[in-house]
Amino acid sequence: MESTDKSKFPLIVIVGGGFGGLQVAKQLEDKPVEVLMLDKHNYHTFQPLLYQVALGSLESESIAFSLRKNFGGQKNFRFRIAEVSKVNHEKNTIDTTIGEIAYDYLVIATGSTTNFFGNKDVEHYAMPMKSIPEALNLRYLIFQNLEEAVLKKVKEEREPYLTFVLVGAGPTGVELAGAIAEFRNFVLEKDYPELKKDDVKIYLVDFLPRVLGPMSEQASKASQDYLHKLGVELLLNAKVQGYDGHTITFEDGKSIKTKSVIWSAGVMGVIPHGISKDLVERGNRIRTDNICRVIGFDNVFAIGDVAAMITDDTPKGHPGVAQVAIQMGQNVGKNIVHLIKGEATVPFVYNDKGSLATIGRNKAVADLGKIKFQGFFAWLIWIFVHLFSLVGTRNRVIVFINWIGNYINYNGGSRLIIRRFTRGTVKNTTEEVTKYK
Amino acid sequence: MESTDKSKFPLIVIVGGGFGGLQVAKQLEDKPVEVLMLDKHNYHTFQPLLYQVALGSLESESIAFSLRKNFGGQKNFRFRIAEVSKVNHEKNTIDTTIGEIAYDYLVIATGSTTNFFGNKDVEHYAMPMKSIPEALNLRYLIFQNLEEAVLKKVKEEREPYLTFVLVGAGPTGVELAGAIAEFRNFVLEKDYPELKKDDVKIYLVDFLPRVLGPMSEQASKASQDYLHKLGVELLLNAKVQGYDGHTITFEDGKSIKTKSVIWSAGVMGVIPHGISKDLVERGNRIRTDNICRVIGFDNVFAIGDVAAMITDDTPKGHPGVAQVAIQMGQNVGKNIVHLIKGEATVPFVYNDKGSLATIGRNKAVADLGKIKFQGFFAWLIWIFVHLFSLVGTRNRVIVFINWIGNYINYNGGSRLIIRRFTRGTVKNTTEEVTKYK
Predict the structure, then answer these.
(1) What sections of the protein cross the membrane (chains A, B) (predicted)?
(2) CB distance from B83 to chain A under 8 Å?
(3) 8 Å CB contact of A80 and B151
(4) Among A281, A436, B295, B417, which residue carries the largest CB count within 10 Å?
């Protein structure tokens, strides 16, 4: 069993180094506790900018930050690469890929993963985009498809490689659709003199009647206008039936031939075993009380996308956005110290600072409480917020340089296929080198 | 058969988008020819900085440049991702992964790959570093090994994960050894409070009696001093017998237990089929005349690492360095136009501008003709030369920012394990996400 040195300090085990887990660890700096963070990656991913990695306008590593480096100065912090399979709450331990670990307090901050709603074909053939490897795979697929299109002489054979269908018109889908459209409108013909931008079709699909469902009607309408101007076709009130890698079909009978379906239509929480099914809410989230504690457990917390704090004010829990995870993380960090000191805890109250979504190069929509606005100024706010939310000065500077370059000439970026993507596995191009010998 | 539109211009097919191929294509801009470049990657790799990608002090994409983007403005340029398997010179075609392609002139600029000298175990277990995927795999291995070491409680079990053996003390091996040593000396204990720098051992191995064999004795001696000061152990006059993933053995009977053997001990040219064996020189290079034409072929050229221009002045050909490839590329580009116009060609004469190698953070050695110097000033020259040799302003700025950050606090970089590396294949961490469900 892995444990820290015998210490009189309680051990707080944080599962997940995302927005929420990071905040818990930060709050516990210089507090009378030991902190052990586990994550399957050794870095934190700034998910809001993944779509730029997918289009190659940002390097993958500029939106990732080494967890060890981030907490390098925090004396009570330890990190291990590990995945948690089970919580043994009667023993106060977790089963992990590096052995059984005992905890005094456990924070489940495992986030969410893509929800394919049980459709196995879609899960196999469509591309999710919730991690850096997934964004890179998507990038490789997009640019490989363009290279395939270049080789096709017959229009019907070429079209599926130039048709992109994005399912899910939340902020992720909208931002990605706008970025692909801008690539088509301003970069494609320079990089691929063999292709015509009019041959590239981009569809944004949702079963709701409008895009950006969680945002205001005003934001929806403005986004739809911007998307239209960019040349994105909206298919609303449309429910996907299936996708076999060649054709995507809808419940109304419509179908589109495409080699690229990108799925951002839903998320579900990532829950280890050991949590009773009656505690699992819709969207695979763990039910918690108003200090983020898993119902019935006095030393296990759940925060962020994996949690559902059901109260009279929040009958469906909170939205799965970064600000919720960040604020819950801060709340849990403080409350753990209160509990240890025998002090009163502070209930969690979400301070909704608003929503932003960007469409294309210099437009965005913003709902900031009662104030709703759209256009260039909203975009400046979006830039500002995302740049300063990044972890680390170096990352901020690198992203900023990339954005300046992209803004000046549209043509920034690393549209590089580093490894050939094939479904099921990522083929290592080292294998391709050996073919020459 | 793939071909361009019927055009009265001759088609120049360039196989390889490295230093040499790039220059041929550049020379042919606005000339009365069509250019088709083929490469297995859609980007050019700036190999001299690969070792920084391996250590995570540079993002992988900052040393890669999209070939399509680079030549986006060149009207007579086309690009395809393809690998060439065979030259059919009697037909003037090449067999490729995208079909048979006819050429009027062919330039073989395929470069070199790692030479394991026939040792199959070493080839399987040791890590080469001649491409971005290989540098990334090496990075993942290094940092995965450190994570493994953290989990080991017994010193003997931990040591192999903390022992790094670099075989080949040319510039690549020396630069990488210096970088690993600096990581150990200045960053390791901050990121990994569980590890001690004295537990990490770094060996630099060569069968020659001194490091940097191609450089001057003065440069060798200075490098050896710097390496000693950084704590790298030199094993010279040492020939590797085998490596099984756990222990590397030498012909003198010595052995070292290590999980990381990095092989930069030799290169060999990458030659497609169809070139007669009597034209293949030592190091798997194609013999050419003094205008880089393959002996006996009047319309096929070979340049750079894959070529051996054997003359009285150059009885062993030229060194496999970037400047040779660049200058040969320029020469071939110009001579192709001369040949087309029926003008006299210009023989190739290599202008040796000197050699540089860097050791650690701010030391380098420089042989610039008669002038040989070492230390901080040589390092400034190294920085200057490499920064301005990069392709593209954005890449230069990004690399510069990274270097500033690294210089100020040693602690730049993205020591990120994006995908878990296992020998044989690269396991996609997307597979690891599904384990949670």
Answers:
(1) 376-393
(2) yes
(3) yes
(4) B417
Chain B hits for A405, Cβ within 8 Å = 393-394, 397
Identify the pLDDT of residue B423. Answer: 64
Predicted confidence band at B74 (pLDDT cuts at 50, 70, 90)? Answer: very high
B208 in contact with A at a CB cutoff of 8 Å?
no
Please tell me whether residue B96 adopts helix, strand or coil conformation: strand
The verdict on a CB contact (< 8 Å) between B133 and A419 is yes
pTM, full prediction: 0.87
Q: How many CB pairs under 8 A join A and B?
A: 190
Position of tokens 């059919």? B88
By annotation, the residues of B acting in catalysis are 175
Ordered structural domains, chain A, with CATH: 11-114+268-341 (3.50.50.60), 116-265 (3.50.50.100)
B354: Cβ contacts below 8 Å, ≥ 6 apart: B366, B367, B368, B369
Interatomic CA distance for residues A56 and A137, integer angstroms = 11
CB contact under 8 A, A143 and B42: yes
**Residue at A143: amino acid letter:** F
Nearest to B133 among A66, A405, A430 (CB): A430
pLDDT at B4 over 50: no
More confident of the two residues A25 and B394: A25
Do A207 and A250 contact (CB within 8 A), yes or no?
A: no
Instruction: Count how many Cα atoms sit within 13 Å of the Cα of residue A293 in the half-sphere of its side chain.
Output: 15
* % chain A with pLDDT above 90: 78
Strands (E), A270-382: 280-281, 285-288, 300-302, 307-309, 355-358, 364-368, 371-375
* Closest residue by Cα to residue A265 from A183, A202, A356, A174: A174
pLDDT of B434? 22
**Distance (Å, whole) CA B63 – CA B48:** 9
List the structure tokens of A284: 């695979």
Helices (H) and strands (E) in chain B, counts: 13, 27
* Dihedral sign (CA B168, B169, B172, B176): positive
Closest by Cα among B239, B238, B219, B260 to B129 = B260
pLDDT digits (tens, 9 = 90+) for A101-143: 999 999 999 999 999 999 999 999 999 999 999 999 999 999 9
DSSP conformational letter for A99: E
CA A168 centroid distance within chain? 13
Mean of the pLDDT values across residues B302-317? Answer: 96
Amino acid identity, position A175: E
CA distance A58 to A61: 8
Backbone phi, then psi, for B143, in 5-degree steps?
A: -75, -30
The predicted pLDDT at position B5 comes to: 52
In terms of CA atoms, which chain B residue is nearest residue A4? B194
Residue numbers in A near B394 (CB within 8 A): 401-402, 405, 412
B275 contacts B262 by C-beta, under 8 angstroms: no
Backbone dihedral angles phi then psi of residue B14, each to the nearest 5 degrees: -110, 120
Q: What is the DSSP letter of B356?
A: E
pLDDT number for residue B346: 98
pLDDT tens-digit readout, B5-41: 546 899 999 999 999 999 999 999 999 999 999 999 9
Both tokens of A256, joined, read 């589109």
Q: Quick one: tokens of A50? A: 């993944």
